[in-house]
Design brief:
This protein is of the alpha/beta class. It has seven helices and eleven strands. About 30% of the residues lie in helices and about 35% in strands.
């Protein structure tokens, strides 16, 4: 399997730290609202495990989590994070499958899909919802976010994040162009800079992303019997969905 994060994995966990500072309160709020029915919380595209840490901190002790991450490079960090934290190691199971191939538990307490829904085409998303919704326990939740842009537009090159470790600074830059009516192609550039600011190393990767706005997501989830509302900080673009009758 080609790993789209093979070249950039060393930067990912470091440079998404600030974003997770924005996401974590909304995700925690959504999970604290869960009812009494038990089941497995599934984290799709778990990445390096920052979301897994928030999930475990937000649910009762012992509540099981299935962390799904197909990228071997990101999964290595995820496994290390789960292994080193005793609060995670006994309850987090890591799967190397992808969103459509992972065997889902019969009872899903919550499905979390942060920073990953754009990897799925509209048909793939409908297949995912069709698999998940029948397994949601009463009061279960689906938590997703929509990252800008929500339309296939050009995004000028912008520095998205910067972090220093020791004497080196790590930067993430992003630009995008439309490649279809519903898709953009991101160009992500990761730089390591010396204390003087000169580049030490540089990695550039491209990946395609399906875009949609809040209205489209709401209508798509409604087709599968889910009703959604915004949650967390407005800038986080986060939504929580439940069965319409609940």
């Amino acid at each position: 399997m080609d790993d789209p994060y093979a070249q950039s994995a060393e930067y990912i966990d470091l440079l998404i730290a600030d974003a997770w500072g924005l996401f974590a309160p909304g995700l925690s709020e959504a999970l604290h609202e869960l009812g009494g029915d038990t089941g497995v919380t599934v984290d799709l595209g778990a990445g390096t495990g920052r979301g897994v840490s928030v999930i475990c901190a937000s649910l009762p002790d012992g509540s099981p989590v299935l962390a799904v991450e197909p990228s071997p490079a990101l999964r290595a960090v995820l496994l290390a994070r789960a292994h080193e934290d005793e609060r995670l190691s006994a309850r987090v199971t890591v799967s190397s499958a992808d969103a459509l191939g992972v065997p889902l538990p019969d009872r899903v307490r919550a499905l979390v899909a942060m920073n990953m829904i754009g990897h799925l085409s509209p048909d793939d998303r409908h297949e995912l919802w069709a698999r998940v919704v029948p397994r949601l326990v009463r009061g279960g939740r689906v938590v997703v976010n929509l990252a800008p842009p929500t339309r296939p537009v050009e995004v000028p090159r912008t520095r998205m994040a910067s972090r220093s470790v020791g004497s080196l600074t790590y930067e993430g830059w992003a630009s995008a162009r439309a490649i279809g009516e519903r898709q953009i192609r991101w160009r992500m550039t990761y730089l390591t800079r010396s204390p003087e600011g000169s580049p030490v190393s540089e990695v550039a990767v491209d990946y395609d992303w399906w875009v949609m706005d809040e209205k489209e997501l709401r209508e798509e989830l409604a087709e599968h019997g889910l009703t959604m509302r915004q949650i967390g900080h407005p800038d986080a673009g986060m939504y929580v969905a439940t069965r319409a009758e609940e």
